[in-house]
Amino acid sequence: MIKEKEKNISRFIQMDIPVTERPFKVIGERAGMGEEETIAITRDLMQKGIIRKFGAVLRHQKAGFLQNAMVIWAVPPEKCDTAGRILSSFDQVTHCYQRDPPFEGTYNIFTMVHFREGEMDTVIQELSSATGIKDFMVLMSEEEYKKSSMEYFPDD
Amino acid sequence: MDEIDKKILNIIQKDFPIVEAPFRVVAEKIGTAEDEVLERIRRMKREGIIRRIGAVFDAKKLGYVSTLCAARVPEERLRAFVDTVNSYPGITHNYRRNHAYNVWFTIISPDEATLQSSLAEIRERTGIPDILSMKASRTFKIDASFTV
User: How far is B125 from chain A (nearest CA, A)?
Assistant: First the structure.
C-alpha cells in the first residue's frame, strides 16, 4: 500500500518543512534520499491522494476567524445528499460529514464552521435557509484541550 | 498582516509549489524577492499565524480508521479525564463543548481493533462509561484552508 521509501519521506513532510531556499534538499538529507527523489515521491503521494493537501496550516483564530462551532443537523435520510452538498459549498464550512449513529438519534450531518467577527448568527441562519433544515444544534468550543496533526508511521 | 502577507498565505495554503525552490516560485508569482517571502513566512510562524507547513495525509487512504467521540464527564473529573484521553497518540482534537456531552474528541488509529481497544481502555481507566462513538459514514468536505 505504501512503500518504505514513501513512509520514510512521509515521516518528515508530515511535520514542519524548513523555511529555507531548498526545503526538499534538507528533507532528503534527513530521510537519506536525494532532492529530486524527495520531490518525485511527494508529488506521487499527492497524485495518489494519499497526501490530501500540501501547504501551510493556519491557526484560524489568528487568521481572522475568531469563532468556530460544531453545528450538527437533523436531516431526513433522503435529504442528506443535497444538504451535505449545500453545506459544503459555504466557505465557512471547513468540514462536513454524515455520521452514524446520529447524535441523540437524529443529528446526522456534522459541520465545522468558522466565523469572522460578528457573523456567526447570520451564517448559521444562511446555512439553515439554504438547506431548509430547521432542526440543528450549535456546539461551541468552550475550551481547547488538544489540537494537533496526526503523526503517521511513528517508529515502524 | 498586510496585503503581501495575505497573498503569500493564500498561495502557500492551496498551491504550495512542490519544486526545488518553492519560495522563489511564490516570490515570482507575487512579484517580490525570495528573501522577502522567506522572511515574512518565518515571521508569521513566530507570530503563530502559520501553525506548520507540510503534508496533510488522508488517514483513510493509509488504512487508518477514525471516529468522533462525545463523553459525558462530571465537572470534578474533567481534568483527569482530559489528561488520560490526551495521552493517547491518535487524539488529534479535543474540545469542551456546551452540552451535557461536554467533551468531544477525535481519535485516529491504524486499524479498527486498535481503535476499539483504545476506547475500551479509556472507559476503563477514566471510569467514564458514557462515551459515544460516531463514525463518518460519508465525507462531504474537508478543507481547512482559509482565504485571508
Answer: 18
